[in-house]
Amino acid sequence: MTTNQDMSHFALMHHRNDEEEEEGDDTGLGSNTQYQQQLTEAMMPKQATNGAKILSFKNVCSVQSQPSNLNVLYSTGKVLSTKSASARYIPPRPENVLDAPVVLDDYYLHTLDWSSNNIIAAALGSDVYLWNATTATITLLMTAAEGDYISCVSWITDGSVLAVGLSDGAVQLWDVNLTKLVRTMTGHSARVGCLDWNSHILSSGSRSGAIHHHDVRVASHHVGTLDHHTQEVCGLRWSPDGAFLASGANDNTVHIWDTSLGLEVAPLHTFTEHQAAVKAVSWCPWQTRLLATGGGTSDRHIRFWNTNSGTCIKAVDTKSQVCSVLWSKEHRELVSGHGYSMNQLSLWKYPTMNKITDLVGHSGRILNLCMSPDGQIVASIAADETIRLWKCFAQDKKKKPSKPATTTGSTSGLSMCIR
């Protein structure tokens, strides 16, 4: 292989021959001073004035349509720019740790949600607590009747109302600004394990396998029933545009419902590839018909579905129970929460599904994940009775943030009891 000095000498001789043709110089290499100057220019790109740089840390190809001379022989510009763009620092430790005593270690429940007003709702046994992530203040919102427990919580889009599912099958609506119960909606024959909003329609999934639609604007709230799951519904998510509902259950199936056909219809698609309960259900925010689902201990897979065609695009074995999946709004990435055996959060690059990192710290299985309104922080609640806040998706500083960055008051690095 030609050495740097040989190539430099070649470049210098080429330059000399060009000058001879133009000026008729027959003096060899000229004076020693001229030789040294030209050698320096060929070997040291920072001092070169003619642009012919052998070692270049700029993307020369991006400004030249055709490589010329030896400009791009050792150009490392492309490699460096790719590495720089992907080298986002992800803190390995949580930003905050909150105590969450009496949280129920039940895979099927959804006991954590984060509002658009930056308030985390946590269901701890029979109580619901609110933690304001901006001011770090704590409020006891409600306590269930004796013998009952809270099975799920879900914020309405504007963050003013919290829906609370109960073990007796009822769904309550709470005005959080007034700390007041607005209404109680009944109809389920068993506990309500999952809830999700679509504007004024609140959908609830029950242990009976039924999904009820509630129109919260009217007195006769029960406006539809979907009754195709044979076991407990434990995953429920409306698509970002509100056109489709995805549901997962303990019968190992995923149903896709097209609400343009009505609120009491047969599933548009039924997916049966999972080999365990499907609790993790998440729509991609930047590709509207892409759905991710995650299976329990006997399955351990995250699967991706094209809900237009009803086909599985990709399946990845995560090697552990999948409890929750969230897509990033800022990056082409997603985060998953896991149980046995590492009890970790895992960050993945989409669509390659190369693992970016694991975030460890929980000593019990992760039960739920939720995301801050600015999309940067992921909160995890686990069977070890803690809630941990992880900065997974820092915003691109080159982009103008759409929402103010989430703050956590003066509690950073401290353990807070929200009981």
Please tell me about this protein's structure.
This protein is mainly beta and 419 residues long. The chain is built from 3 helices and 29 strands. It has helices spanning 4-23, 32-43, 77-86; strands at residues 96-99, 112-114, 119-124, 127-132, 138-143, 150-155, 161-166, 171-175, 180-185, 192-198, 201-206, 211-215, 222-226, 233-238, 244-249, 254-258, 269-271, 278-283, 290-295, 301-306, 311-317, 322-327, 333-338, 345-349, 354-359, 366-371, 377-382, 386-391, 415-417. A hairpin with a 4-residue loop joins strand 20 (301-306) and strand 21 (311-317). The longest helix is centred in the first third of the chain and has 20 residues, at 4-23. The protein is globular. The N and C termini lie far apart (70 Å).
State Rg.
Answer: 29 Å
Number of alpha- plus pi-helical segments: 3
Estimate the helix proportion, in percent.
10-25%
Largest sheet, if any?
Answer: 5 strands, mixed
Overall 3D form: globular
How much strand content do the residues show? 35-45%
Going by helix content, strand content and strand pairing, the class is mainly beta
- Low-pLDDT parts are 1-31, 42-85, 404-419
Number of strands: 29
The strands making up the biggest β-sheet line up spatially as: 26-27-28-1-29
Tell me the span between the first and last alpha carbons: 70 Å
The mean pLDDT is 82
SSE inventory with pairings:
Blueprint: H1 4-23, H2 32-43, H3 77-86, E1 96-99, E2 112-114, E3 119-124, E4 127-132, E5 138-143, E6 150-155, E7 161-166, E8 171-175, E9 180-185, E10 192-198, E11 201-206, E12 211-215, E13 222-226, E14 233-238, E15 244-249, E16 254-258, E17 269-271, E18 278-283, E19 290-295, E20 301-306, E21 311-317, E22 322-327, E23 333-338, E24 345-349, E25 354-359, E26 366-371, E27 377-382, E28 386-391, E29 415-417
Helix pairs in contact: 1-2
